[in-house]
Structures are given as structure tokens and as C-alpha cells.
Write a structure and sequence with these properties.
Elements: E1 6-8, E2 15-16, E3 19-20, E4 33-37, E5 43-47, E6 56-62, E7 65-71, H1 73-76
Antiparallel strand pairs: 1-7, 2-3, 4-5, 6-7
């Protein structure tokens, strides 16, 4: 589960008809990052850095929507798993 990180018409269009499509927004409504909840109950914050696809991966692109759903594999780290 993650915070809402959604773009409209482009990978960087953070509003649709004046409605903001993301949480934790900064300048120009660009998301600052998102929280990700894991199955073990851990919640981790991942910053949303430019270029955007390098920090949080696109989970779905369809029609006019781009939805960012997960941290990039390298961002998660080695961990105990």
C-alpha cells in the first residue's frame, strides 16, 4: 500500500482541472515522496526525485494516467530478507 502518486496526461501532470492528484506535494504540486506500507507492518518514506522514474517506479500507464506504485528495486536495499 502506498500514498497516492498519480499524474494526468504526462508523467509530470500533477493536476486535472484544478484538482491535485497526489499527496505530500511541494512546489508546482510535484510530490515530495511517498510512504510505502509493507506486509510486516513497516512503513518507509521514499523521496520522489527527478527524473521521477528513478526513485519511485511507474506501476501503471494507461489512457491519460500514470500511477507510481512502488520504490525502484535498488531503493529498497539489501535488508534481512
Amino acid at each position: 500500500m502506498s500514498d497516492h502518486l498519480q499524474a494526468w496526461q504526462t508523467q509530470t501532470g500533477w493536476t486535472q482541472n484544478g484538482v491535485v492528484l497526489t499527496t505530500h506535494r511541494g512546489k508546482n504540486n510535484v510530490p515530495l515522496g511517498g510512504n510505502f506500507l509493507y506486509e510486516d507492518g513497516d512503513v518507509t518514506w521514499y523521496p520522489f526525485t527527478s527524473p521521477y522514474k528513478n526513485s519511485i517506479a511507474i506501476g501503471l500507464e494507461g489512457g491519460s494516467w500514470t500511477i507510481y506504485l512502488e520504490p525502484q528495486p535498488g531503493a529498497i536495499g539489501a535488508g534481512p530478507w
